[in-house]
Every structure is written in C-alpha cells, then in structure tokens.
Amino acid sequence: MEFLAFISVFYLAMVVVLISQVFFKTNRTVKIEDQSAPSVYDCSVDPSVLQDLKEIASLIESGANTSEVRKIYKAMRLTMKLRRKLKVSILSAFLNYALGPVSEVHAQLSSYLPQDKYDTQVDVEMPATEAHSKHLVPELEIYCYLLVLIFLIDQKKYNEAKACSSKSIVSLKNMNNRTADVLASKLYFYYSLSYEFAGDFAEIRGNLLALYQIATVRHNKLSQETLINLLLRNYLHYNLYDQAEKFRSKAHCVDALSNQQLCRYLLYQGKIKTIQLDYTDAKDSLLQAVQKSPVTAVGFQIQCNKWAIIVQLLLGEIPERTVFTQKRMEKSLRPYFELTNAVRVGDLELLRTVAVKFSSTFSQDRTSNLIVRLRHNVIRTGLRNISTAYSRISLADIAKKLNLDSEHPVDDAENLVAKAIRDGAIDATIDHANRWLVSKATGDVYSTNEPQIAFNSRIAFCLNMHNEAVHALRFPQNLSNKQSVAT
C-alpha cells in the first residue's frame, strides 16, 4: 500500500510539472508575439511620435517666420531620428494637423500613402485647442511632401514616390526663400533617389539641369551643391565620364555649406580623375573624402577606400595594411587586399587568379576596367624586385619569373625591361649580346632628394588641412555691434 501511494504521488507530481511547462511555453510565446515589430499599417497612433512631429512643425514655422535657417537644420535632424517610426496612421494624423483635412495638398498626399486591405484610412480628430493655424507657411507644406516621400522610399513604393516627388518639385519651383533652401536640397536628393531606385534615372537629367540653373540664378548655395552632386551621380551611373567632367569643370563652384555634399563631390571627382588617368589628383580627392566623411558613414568610407586603393596601386604605391583592417571594413576590403598582395609580389598569374575569383565584386564596384590597367604595374613591380635581388639575370629567366604567356616571351621581356629603364622604374642596363639584365649598385636613398620630396608633401598636406579647418570655423553673431547701431 505504501508503494502504491508513492507511485501515485510520483505520477501526480510529473503531471503538475508537465502542465506548468506547457503553461510557461504558451505564456512565453504570447510575450514573444507581443514584442514583434509593429506594422506600418497599424491603425494605432503613437502619441509620442505624433507630438514630436508637431514640435518639428512648430520649429519649421518659427524658423520660417524669423528667417532662422538653423532651426530648419534642427528640424531635419530630428526628422531623420523619427524616420523608422513612421506609419500610415501617424502620417495621416500629422497631415490632418498640419494641412487640414479639406486641403488640396492633403488630398494629394493622402492618395500616395499605401493602403492595406485590413486598414482603412484612419482619421484622427484633433481637439479644438490643437487646431493648426490657417496661415500655413510654404515651408511646412514642403516638409509634408518630404515626410511622405521619405516614407514611400523606405517602404519601397517607388512609383508612388516618383509621383509625389514630381508634384513636390512643381510646387517648389515657385518658392525663393532662404529658409526653404534646406528643405529644397533634401527634396531634390529624394527626388533623384526615387527615380534611381525605380530605374528611370535618365528621365530627370534635363529637369535636374533646369533646377540647377534656377538655384544658380537665385544664389541658393545649398541647392547648388546638392544638384551638382546629383547630376554627377546621374552621369556616372551611365558611365558618361566625359560629360560629367565637362559639367564639373563649368559648374559654378560655391563654398561648401554641407560636409556631406562636399564628401560626395570629392568622391565623384576622384572617380572622374581616375578614369581620365589623372591619378595624383584622384588620390588627393578620394583620401580627403575618407578623412572628411562621418565615422558612421561606413558604406561611403568603404566605397572611397576601394577606389583609393586602386588609385594608389596604379601610382605604384602599396597601401598601408591598416587600411584593410579597419573596423567593419575587413570583409568588404578583402578582395582589394588580395589584389594589393598580387601587385606587391609582382605576380601576373596571381593577379589573374584574384581578378577571376572576385570578378563579381569588381563588376559591382565598377572597378574591373581599372584592374586591367594594373597589369603594367605588376610587371614593373616584378622587374623592380628582380633588379634588386639579382646583379645579373637573363631575359629568359625574367620572362619565366613574370609568367609571360605570349608567343615570344623573351622578346616581350626585353621590351618591358627597356621601357622600365627608360621610365626610371629600375636602374639597370641591358646586355643585348648576351641577353642579360645588369643591375647597377643600389645607392643610399638618403643621398637623393626623395626624403625631401616626401617630407615636403606631408608638410603641404598638414598646412592644407589647417587652412580648411580655419575656413570651416563658425563664429556667433556680434550682437553688441547690432545693438549699438540700432541705438
């Protein structure tokens, strides 16, 4: 009897444990489902996000009425922080607040917002105390266009984004306010981005040129910077490097107001100079773009570093190893690290292997045509290594070490060696009778002008950076002088 009582108690305890485990798993599943990411079609309105948008609208109105551009800048920074929290219901509520439910612009923007079969348009009624002013400033109307356009691009609704951006550009052409210049530059950027994602980038090239002409006549410097970069991006997207250089050389240069636009301009200029064989200027532009870009712009820095590595290799320089070991860039720069190793060793066969192995990456980066140019640099590096290692070596051995796969490798090796000697890459002579390469004794590099040239270039770089930093300083307005003049 005691044994049967023990067995019954044991089975009862096991049942209780199983029931508790099932209840725990069910509760955990419910909690996980409750913590899932909210849908953009959620009908609920987050009051905190809506309140933040109202404060941004008040900030834009205040900046427009007092002609304070810094308030518009602040409004755009705050908007980028709220970008991932936007939903259809929040945008509808904000449009009701900012534009009014009976406004024509409100009707247009509401038609662009995506609709879900489970989501009817949510009309959030504003209390009378929260009713917006009837005297709507044009900047706020443009901001509403911009907000909806950003949301459509994030949701990959590119056709609706194209229609919305085109309508906003028509409204923007009639505005000529300094406070609207900041919003206009952002609107131009997303206008171009929507057409680029939709695959219709070439359609707006003429319109961008017309907008640039209007911005130049009105002396809207920030819009000029943005439109110059957008046009260069448009040309480079279709490999129109000659047209891009003609436009860049004739465009009216303005002082950089935005560091982001300056970095983009330096990148595009570096790409153009690289294609046109002006490697020295291309290197300077690309390295400046890397140094001036924000730390958070990792993708932009990776793109600049890729082109800068190629340019340095074409110049006969080997990039530092620290370039390839930067945080969050090691995986992306791995193909270019192996490419650099092939050039450093001077092995043509290794160069071919790397080019085939990472052909898809190089094609995506649009650097395949530049890698073809590296063959001459690999040969020159190999000849330099051979000249340093051997005081005398036959041309046949040189052709074998360089892995020349032509029909007459010895004759080709002789031509390559002669060209390298003429260009000053190696200090040697050719014994044509015996078909030898005779290297001269290596001298002391410090007895030449090379250390002085390298030191001078570093000093010039530091002075240039100091001058740019002083030029970029901003000082507060001298209010005492204004008050004395007013009195």
Strand order of the largest sheet: 1-3-2
H/E element order: HHHHHHHHHHHHHHHHHHHEHHEEHH
Output the radius of gyration. Answer: 32 Å
Helix amount, in percent?
55-70%
Q: Please report the distance between the alpha carbons of the first and last residues.
A: 109 Å
As a percent range, the share of strand residues is: under 5%
Low-confidence stretches: 22-38, 117-131, 482-487
Backbone structural class: mainly alpha
The major pleated sheet works out as: 3 strands, antiparallel
- Overall pLDDT: 79
Domain PCI: 263-444
GO molecular function: enzyme regulator activity
Transmembrane segments: 6-24
Family: Belongs to the proteasome subunit S3 family.
What is the secondary structure topology, with strand pairs?
Blueprint lengths: L1 H33 L12 H20 L2 H13 L6 H11 L5 H9 L25 H17 L3 H15 L5 H21 L6 H13 L3 H17 L3 H10 L8 H17 L3 H14 L5 H17 L6 H4 L9 H12 L2 H10 L1 H7 L2 H22 L2 E3 H7 L7 H15 L4 E4 L4 E4 L10 H22 L7 H8 L1
Antiparallel strand pairs: 1-3, 2-3
Helix pairs in contact: 2-3, 2-4, 3-8, 6-7, 6-8, 7-8, 8-10, 9-10, 10-11, 10-12, 12-13, 12-14, 13-14, 16-17, 16-19, 20-21
Describe the structure.
This protein is mainly α and 487 residues long. Helices cover 69% and strands 2% of the residues. A hairpin with a 4-residue loop joins strand 2 and strand 3. It is elongated and about 95 Å long. The N and C termini lie far apart (109 Å). InterPro entries: CSN3, PCI_dom, PSMD3_C, TPR_PSMD3_N, WH_DNA-bd_sf.
